[in-house]
Structures are given as C-alpha cells and as structure tokens.
Amino acid sequence: MTKAAVKFLQAYFKAMMDFGNQDTSKAISTDLGAKLGKMYQKMNIVNFEKGLKKMYKVLKGKPKILKIDDKNYDVTITYKKPFCPIGGSWNIKIAKQFQDSVCIPYTQSFLNSFEPNYKFKGEIKKCILFNGTSFCKYKLHIEEEEH
Q: How far lies 125's CA from each of 10, 19, 95, 129, 132, in Å?
C-alpha cells in the first residue's frame, strides 16, 4: 500500500467518525469488511486465518495468529514503527471510538464473510492508537451461531 493510499484511508476514516455518528461509522466499516472478505474469497482465499494474514500484510504488518484452542486465537500485528496504517499515530483521544467504529466492526464482518455460521468477537489488548506501541494485539473468540 502506498503512502498516499494510507493517508487517504486515514483521512477517510477520521472524516467518517467526525461527520457521521457512531452507528453510521460502524455500518460503513461493517460493509467494507464484508466486501473485502468476499473479494478475498474470489481470489481463492477461503480460510479466515489466511484472509487475516493477507489483510494485515497488505497494510505492511507482520501478523502472528496463534490458535489457543478451537474457539480462541491470539492475534498480534507488528509494524516497523508505532504507526497504525488505518488510524495513524498514537492518539488516545480517538483510540476507543476508532476501535468501536472502525477496527472491530470491520474485522468482525471480514471474518464473518468467511464463516457465516460463526460469530467472531475480539477483545483488544494493545492498540497503537491507545498505547503508542508498534503492534496491535487482540484475542479472537469464535462461537457457533444459534439457529
């Protein structure tokens, strides 16, 4: 991803949060995540773990996905600098809103596009915007949808 594309993406997400309400931001993020998942499936990336790795590599991250058991994973994405390609540099003022409006709904819908019979929940442990680190870390929990 080029530097110009990263800056555009960051400006887009920040404007979305500034001008829309949280529900609007969540809806757009959810839609975009699902579309990316469907696009990956058309490229024969049909496993959510492979999809996650590809998504983070495109953003110049180094993903590590550790399967704890059938329902739990630890996900860590390391970057060369303490800079989030989506949210930018450390900014505790927007971190929580950004997580709730962009990161979580985007990632959940992306994952759900691979496994529609499951519900994905993420618990963010470390965030570049919140902690100023050069990595993001979250716990991913998977539950089968009740029908």
A: 22, 28, 12, 12, 13
Q: Report how many domains make up the chain.
A: 1
Determine the structural domain holding residue 59 and report its residue range.
3-144
Residues 6+ apart with CB under 8 A from 55: 36, 40, 110
What is the signed CA dihedral for 10, 15, 20, 21, rounded to 10 degrees?
Answer: 60
Q: What is the CA radius of gyration of the chain?
A: 15
Q: Which residues pair with 76 in a beta bridge?
A: 64, 137
Confidence of residue 10 (pLDDT cuts 50, 70, 90): low
The CATH number given to whatever domain includes residue 103 is 3.30.1380.20
Note the pTM of the prediction, 2 decimals.
0.86
Q: Distance between CA 137 and CA 145 in Å, rounded? A: 25
